[in-house]
Amino acid sequence: MNVYEKLKELNLEIPAAPPKGGVYSPCQEFGDNLVYISGCGPVTGEETVSGKLGKEFTTEEGKILSRNAMLNVLAVLQDKIGDLNKVKKGVKILTFVASTEDFYEQPAVANGGSELLAALFGQDKVPARSAIGVNVLPGNIPVETEAIFEIEK
Length: 153
Known about the structure:
Blueprint: H1 3-9, E1 27-30, E2 34-40, H2 59-81, E3 87-98, H3 106-121, E4 128-134, E5 143-151
Parallel strand pairs: 3-4
Antiparallel strand pairs: 1-2, 2-5, 3-5
Helix pairs in contact: 2-3
C-alpha cells in the first residue's frame, strides 16, 4: 500500500521538516542505500511541548509525542529522498525520553514511533530499537528520536 494513503487512513500527515537546532546535518546518506536521520523532537506545528514523562506527561501522552517525533523524522527523510514509498525498511531507531527518576516506561513511550512505522511500512519492517531515559533534552522537549532507514535507489 502507498505510504501516503496509509497516512490519510490514519488521519495523519507529514509535517514540514523541522528546522535545524545547531551545526549538524539533519540527514546523511551512507553506504549504498542507508539514510541516517538526526534526532527530531515532537513539535509538529506551532505549539510548543516541554516537560518530562512522569511529571507533565503520562505514558499514553508520551506515545503520542513519540509518534509526532517519528512524523518529524519521516519529514526529514521525505525531504532527502522525495518519496517515502522508497523506504524498504527501518533499520534502527533510538528514542530518548526525558523523564523523572521514578519513571520506567521509556519503551512504552517509544512504542508510539514504532507503531507508526509498523502501520506505514508493515510489522516485518519495524526497525531494531533502543529507548533511553534521560534527565533533559534540548529545549526541554520530552521525546527525541533518531533513525536509520534502508531505501531503494
